[in-house]
Amino acid sequence: MNQQRPVSIVMIEDDEGHARLIEKNIRRAGISNTLKHFLDGGSALDYLFNDPEGPCKNGPALVLLDLNLPDMSGTEILERIKSDPALKRTPVVVLTTTDDKVEIERCYDLGANVYITKPVNYESFADAIRQLGLFLSVIQVPEPDAA
Questions:
Q1: What are phi and psi of 138, to 5 degrees?
Q2: 82 vs 65: CA distance, rounded Å
Q3: What does the buried/exposed string (b/e) look like for 111-147 if buried means 16 or more CB atoms within 10 Å of the residue's CB?
Q4: In sequence order, which ranges of the chain are alpha helices (DSSP H)?
Q5: How far apart are CA 22 and CA 18, in angstroms?
Q6: In whole angstroms, what is the distance from residue 33 CA to residue 140 CA?
Q7: How many Å is the Cα radius of gyration of the chain?
């Protein structure tokens, strides 16, 4: 029986302040997994699909995805991940300021596993991220399918 490999966390978030807050509170929840942070969709997709350390070639991973990115929509990234045979089972947590009902439904239709609206208030945001950290500490993540 093969050993379960550690899950790496891929955070795609263009707001540095939010990214720091997310990482700090994930660490505070006791999550010590490798965390790779990308400020835009293009570099994140390149890592996900092409990097030898990325999940496509070196799985398993969990993706934290902001929808509002400078170079492309987060839903585009979600769609790419979920339509790829090797990455389709990769859990994607959408973490965004958008609480539009249509956008939420669209993300779930595209295969998002969790949709979290970032509270505007700092304390509520920190609290939501702490809870996300606890969630990340207990979920099971499947290995990617061999390409």
A1: -115, -15
A2: 13
A3: bbbbbbbbeeeeeebbebbeebbeebeeeebeebeee
A4: 16-28, 41-50, 55-58, 74-82, 101-110, 122-138
A5: 6
A6: 13
A7: 14
Q: What is the pLDDT along the chain (147 residues), one digit of tens a residue?
A: 345 677 889 999 999 998 998 898 888 888 888 999 999 999 999 999 999 999 988 878 999 999 999 999 999 999 999 999 999 999 999 988 888 999 999 999 999 999 988 877 878 887 887 777 777 777 677 777 655
* Neighbouring residues of 2: CB distance < 8 A, sequence distance ≥ 6: none
Task: Classify 123 as helix, strand or coil.
Answer: helix
**Hey, what are 104's tokens?**
């939420």
What would the two tokens of residue 100 be?
């539009």
Q: Which tokens in the block code for residue 73?
A: 């929509």
